[in-house]
Amino acid sequence: TGAGALQLWASQLLLKPPGVGVASHVGWHQDIHYWRYWAAGSELLTVWIALVEVHADMGPMGFIVGSHRWGYRGLGDYFVDQGTTASATSAPDGAPVTERAVLLPAGGLSVHHPLTVHGSGANRSSTTRISIALHLRGEQTRAVPGADDWHVQPSRLADAWRCPWLEGKAAPAAE
User: Rounded to an integer, what distance in angstroms lies between the CA atom of residue 58 and that of residue 121?
Assistant: First the structure.
């Protein structure tokens, strides 16, 4: 990002159990759809860490290569099958697109931009897919004025126990 400091502002434990079929799909989406409390141009990213080895049959996360350059597409429905959101995978200029599955060893990680179109299919293995998503911001990132989401509350962001600065010196909380 070019940021001088990175703050962890949210984290998620993600479990994808086997044997639940379409119910475990995560539809094509862009993280920024859920993060509109951050001002335009904010330095945001997600680090996705596999806690178990992720094979192709486990419903791995998949990215649409280069989709972070397409801008905001209004994609934010986790709970639909990828096939029902075909427009998500159409390049604005009609160029062919490439989907890339994220196959990782346990402890491996992937980093993506908040505009990256991504999702996942069903876990067809016999093992639960377990991962952690860490959501980070650069020190210049600010909340949208008047935003009233707990993620951007100044008192929460100033709490180094809840939202530690991971790189560089601590910067002021989002305003």
Answer: 8
